[in-house]
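Per reviewer request, we include the raw input and output of the structure prediction for the construct analysed in the revised manuscript.
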Amino acid sequence: MSRPRRLASLVTVLALAACARATPPAPRQTEADPAVARAVMAPLLADPELVSLDRDPLGAAVPPDDFAPATVAAARAEARKLLAGAEPRTLAEGGACRGCDALLVEARAALLGPGCRARLAPGLEWSLRLPAELPIYPKSHLRDAAGSDEPPCPRRAASFTAPVPAAEVAAFYRALAARAGYDLRPAGAHAFVGRRGAQRIAVIVRPGEGGFARFDLIVAG
């Protein structure tokens, strides 16, 4: 090959190399994290009753309050077995319950003393640390929970939706608490507090949509 041709070939190669360097690399396709995608695409939680979902947007979905008649019947049958003949304690009218309509369960837990709210940490695992003598009303759905092991505020608080009306849930817990030896007094329309030695409890029951009840179990000490 003659020298002019070699020079022409070298110029062509250099020009092609310059074009290759000037072309930006194609963006690398990355796989989206499913959890992040769910969090980004999830609707905004404007309903105050869904506030617990906003604490953990990447967690599992809370089941809907969708209690079929068969579920309601099964819940009542299980509740009768748990009561095993225990009768609800009759309490006087309690009037308004101060704080029972607070947005967060740790604020409602102030029914057992307002000084500990700042120490309570949200977390659904606290619902697993409630006393066995106060079981969750059958077929209920966990909505929120908070608690602390830090002295002087050992506390567990959990919020649920039950498949029956508020009056039934309140009677269920009055019977269980009386059988367990708690001294009870009213704290609202369907709310009461109890004491047994150093341990104190509060049960707050509120009517919910569709005739279902929303209730909190709170234990201190």
